[in-house]
């Protein structure tokens, strides 16, 4: 996953040697220690240094070979050793000079010479002065403390560095917030003074503390999906862990890879403080949905209820999402909306699967003159073979989108099926096995329960009513033999066609009939003219479908 830099990084080495306020616990302890050290009077610390120097000198004179782990102490011991050497050399030179002076003057001025007293204390005093300066310089320096809104923050080595940090924070705050930000002269001040070197911090630590005091921007990690900011956190690695948890729910022992379709990236840098949210909120967003449509294109043979069932919906739920569609008049190529929301993250999983697959058997045909064209009968049944298959299968949000077969080893061979097929010419009236619409019009009453309020009308409607104008042609839905043609009570003038394959179709409430019982008709032949005979509230064609003595919804068969 890409780790992107923010708009600008104050700390070019990432987030410094320590993570965001991981040393928050250490900070108060350090501040307390610094305050304790600052609280001691300078005179007391100098007295302590003086006492230590005296102790070192005493140990040196006593030949106790003093030691020290402190740099300043080691420097002092070295100077004391050198001074002792210089004192010995000085005394030796004075002794030689005195002897030379006596020989040259004949001893007349010995008393005067003896009056001169030279002591190594002079050298020791000078050395101590140098050592004191060295100790002072090793423990103290001139530093600049930043004061923001009256609160003293960290101290850095120079005024220039302090001002540079403030300017950098002002720039990054402006860039992050998208509006100008500056420090006013009243909000930030700088004080330079002699401070203990232990109180001086590096630039990164001052940046962090001043940024926290301003409170407008924060160093953090931001999650983006297709360049849309989802949320930010201060904790390093937390967002990666959250994404890994989402992937884990899709992982099985067969999983090869798990990834996201969207461009998912985590950016490290400064973010507006208000964008820092709880990880639980980010997780909730990632597991929710966003605006977007999932669609389905209608293909041949689709019905409204079948589409709904295959996508885990009821017909009513599908209609609620697609109110402009007529569920009885689906057309090939129609695009239905299945959902108005899509997941925030689309997970792509690739699995390596090993399974046994059926092998399709072949079919051979033998001509049979006793059978009509299009008819056949099985002479010997075929059987499927089997194969051991290894394939890589890709799923998107749990639905298979691709299958790549890596190997296939046949376990059993398939057995070919033998069929006889008819060659005799089919009569024009012979059924095709499918039904066309008997006429064109609006459906005014559907199959099933109804309450029309019309005396004599059935509450259990056994077909569909197609509203048309008076005299509109009515056609045979398929070829067959007319089993009834005439007036039949509430049906009015009706034609019933037996299609010789278990199906019968009913055409009721006609104004006139054009065929008679026993006559053969072909698919699409006009058999009547529409009217309102029998029990009818208006001109229409009642069309019914019966199979083996039971009525079925005609909409499941019409094409």
Q: Measured on Cα atoms, how large is the radius of gyration?
A: 51 Å
Major sheet size, sense and barrel closure: 10 strands, antiparallel
Q: What class would the helix/strand composition place it in?
A: alpha+beta
Q: What is the residue-averaged pLDDT?
A: 80
Q: Measure the end-to-end span.
A: 52 Å
Q: Give the name of the CATH superfamily of the domain at 442-556.
A: Glucose Permease (Domain IIA)
| Fraction of residues in helix | 25-40%
Which architecture of the domain at 442-556 would the CATH scheme give at its second level? Distorted Sandwich
Helical stretch tally = 11
* Count of extended strands: 28
What share of residues are in beta strands? 25-35%
What name does CATH use for the topology of the domain at 442-556? Answer: Glucose Permease (Domain IIA)
Poorly predicted runs: 1-25, 32-40
Question: Which geometry do the CA atoms define?
Answer: elongated
CATH class of the domain at 442-556: Mainly Beta
What does this structure look like?
Residues 1-25 and 32-40 have low confidence and may be disordered. The protein is α+β, with helices and mostly antiparallel strands. It has helices spanning 26-39, 42-61, 71-105, 110-115, 121-139, 159-177, 203-214, 238-248, 279-286, 304-310, 315-321, and strands at residues 3-5, 140-148, 151-156, 188-196, 217-225, 228-233, 255-260, 264-272, 289-297, 335-343, 347-359, 363-372, 376-380, 385-396, 399-412, 417-424, 442-445, 448-449, 460-461, 464-467, 473-475, 480-487, 493-498, 503-513, 520-521, 526-530, 540-547, 550-552. Among the domains are: 42-140, no CATH class; 291-343, LysM domain (Membrane-bound Lytic Murein Transglycosylase D, Chain A), CATH 3.10.350.10; 347-424, Resuscitation-promoting factor rpfb (Resuscitation-promoting factor rpfb fold, Single Sheet), CATH 2.20.230; 442-556, Glucose Permease (Domain IIA). It contains eleven helices and 28 strands. Strands 17, 20, 21, 22, 23, 24, 25, 26, 27 and 28 form a ten-stranded antiparallel beta sheet that branches. The protein has a four-stranded mixed beta sheet with strand order 1-8-5-6, sandwiched between helices. Strands 7-11-14-15 form a four-stranded antiparallel beta sheet, with no helix packed on it.
